[in-house]
């Protein structure tokens, strides 16, 4: 049995799972999203380059990916520190920080934030989507990728001794590319050896989550210890959602606080409102999946910080939980979603 078994690995070391408390399973504290810049609508170029004034905040909420400066969350460590202190005050205990190779993971900053705020921070191993893979990454064998991911968990990542406590978010596009398929296989192999939690970013197609599960399963992955992220922008049909839920992964609704009319990466998608997200959670609870739901905000742009008029990392605790209770999700079920399910997922086998 490894020393990790029965423990959770934070950037400050191993902790007992009971110490985690309320947990957001998918956030970013420092990263860049420049890989996913999307040009502004014609005529909006000026506002796009002049974003941080009150009169531009609505535009920025509608077009978060069309302003270069908005994509540089790594410039806001001071504001994020204040937000984490507020998160603790609101009853939060832990944040899973999903920044992987390709979007500027910064482990020393995560460690400092954990020290400064008392929030448990769990860092992610592995690789984001194909468009961020280097040529060297694309040339690697599954075995080499597996070795790197295992080393990020056992020894530390990016030349530091700071260890990752989950694999992911592992990025995939749609269709899934050859390089992403290798990373998924390596993820499953590493998970088999480590008994660790895995979290996946699916491409923007309703069939993507099931296809990813198939690839992981074929490579020996443990789907019961895997979170499928971003379901709120991926699967919309109740029947399809239940079919996917049967496959046994954790079901993550992680874009709480994001409300936009035109989702630029897939105009077919109608991004749900927070009320619709709560409705989806209530539906899954009614269908018996309360042991499988996890939630988060996936903050990855500046405008979502309270400093810029955004909802911040405490929005779920302050605003969504009361709404969940109003819509028939019991306190016991809320506690499962915020405490028990993340704890179970994050504990090494
Ligand atoms: C790095 C953050 C991230 O990937 N977030 C998901 C954005 S979206 O694919 O849901 O638009």
Automatic annotation (TrEMBL):
A divalent metal cation 1 binds at residues 26, 28, 169, 298. One of its GO terms (molecular function) is zinc ion binding. A divalent metal cation 2 binds at residues 169, 201, 230. PROSITE patterns: PHOSPHOTRIESTERASE_2. It catalyses: N-acetyltaurine + H2O = taurine + acetate; N-acetyl-L-valine + H2O = L-valine + acetate; N-acetyl-L-isoleucine + H2O = L-isoleucine + acetate; N-acetyl-L-leucine + H2O = L-leucine + acetate. Gene3D superfamilies: Metal-dependent hydrolases. Coiled coil: none annotated. Its cofactor is a divalent metal cation. CDD domains: PTE. Binds 2 divalent metal cations per subunit. The keyword Transport does not apply. The keyword Hydrolase applies. Keywords: Hydrolase, Metal-binding. Belongs to the metallo-dependent hydrolases superfamily. Phosphotriesterase family. This is N-acetyltaurine hydrolase. The lineage of its organism: Eukaryota, Metazoa, Chordata, Craniata, Vertebrata.
